[in-house]
Design goal:
five-stranded antiparallel beta sheet, 2 domains, 14 strands, seven-stranded antiparallel beta sheet, alpha+beta, Immunoglobulin-like, disordered N terminus, about 325 residues
């Protein structure tokens, strides 16, 4: 009797599965133990196939290839063992069919698992889309709330500013503004013409420094100044202008014409000029309206003067 040992390695995950098939032959016949031994090895093959079923889909092609080679070996062994191996060949073929069915079931299970995973992924995407939509809606509400808050803050600031200005105006209105003093003099030169028509100016009337304007809360005003002029009659016209604090426009007080007569008192200077003092009172609606804002107001004055007995010689000043 001769024996033949067949070894076959099937690649696995990180290890090799060893299949051993022993064939015993004897000239002129076969030993009675040979089918049992072969059956034991076939059972080992079945156990290995069952273990292979639990592997992932990526290993199935290699397993199928291993089974194909195993079938080839079994077929060769069956040819060598002749009729004694026919039963084992049929059993091996049946086992192969069972393994193929198992692989198909495993493939179906894997496919179902992939389908279930895709369904879960779609559900997760849908939940994410819903959450993003809810977040976008919440973000819109937050932005609207921020805008409303900014508008409310702006309105509150404006209201506070208005109340503050009203309090300032009321407080200022209760305070008596100090009289305004024009610190510089105002000149009204006498214009004459030369032989060629050129304009010649000589000293005319002068309003001295410290011209003073005082106010009353009922709109009354009082103006005091000193005027120096040559010994000729003068018609003096003045207009006072003021711009109250916080008001972007000018208000005006136009005085009645002021008549200067050299023979009506006053004192005479060394240059034979006369100095007279004037005190003028009046009333202005704008002074009453902006009385509390005159403390920080801007003032200016304009005017002109006519000199002589009916002569139209004039002088102007924009002080």
């Amino acid at each position: 009797m001769s024996n033949q040992l067949l070894r076959y390695r099937i690649p696995g995950r990180g290890h090799f599965a060893l299949l051993v098939l022993a064939v015993f032959t004897q000239p002129g016949g076969s030993d009675a133990t040979e089918p049992n031994d072969l059956k034991l090895r076939i059972d080992a093959i079945k156990a290995e196939i069952i273990n292979l079923r639990n592997r992932t889909q990526n290993e199935l092609p290699a397993i199928r290839a291993s089974l194909h080679e195993l079938n080839t070996i079994v077929a060769s062994t069956a040819l060598e063992a002749k009729s004694a191996k026919a039963t084992e060949l049929l059993a091996t073929t049946q086992q192969h069919a069972d393994g193929t069915t198992a692989y198909r079931d495993l493939d179906l299970e894997t496919t179902n698992a992939w389908d279930a995973a895709e369904v879960r992924e779609l559900q997760a995407r849908e939940r994410r889309r819903v959450q993003e939509a809810q977040f976008a809606e919440s973000d819109v509400h937050v932005r609207q709330f921020q805008q409303e808050l900014e508008v409310a803050e702006t309105e509150a600031n404006r209201d506070y500013a208005r109340k503050f200005l009203v309090r300032q105006a009321n407080s200022a209105h209760d305070r008596t503004p100090a009289p305004f003093v024009f610190a510089s003099p105002a000149h009204f030169p006498i214009r004459e013409f030369g032989q060629r028509g050129e304009i010649l100016e000589r000293e005319g009337a002068i309003i001295y420094e410290d011209m003073q304007l005082s106010f009353a809360n009922d709109g009354g005003y009082h103006l005091e100044f000193r005027l120096e002029a040559p010994r000729v009659p003068i018609d003096l016209r003045l207009q006072l202008q003021f711009r109250p604090m916080g008001i972007d426009r000018w208000s005006s007080i136009t005085l009645a014409p002021i008549r200067f007569e050299p023979n009506e008192g006053g004192r005479e200077t060394q240059s034979r000029r006369t100095v007279q003092e004037y005190k003028i009172s009046g009333h202005s609606l704008d002074i009453a309206r902006y009385y509390g804002q005159l403390g920080g107001a801007d003032f200016r004055r304009t005017g002109n003067a006519r000199f002589g007995y009916g002569s139209a010689t004039r002088g102007t000043s924009d002080r």
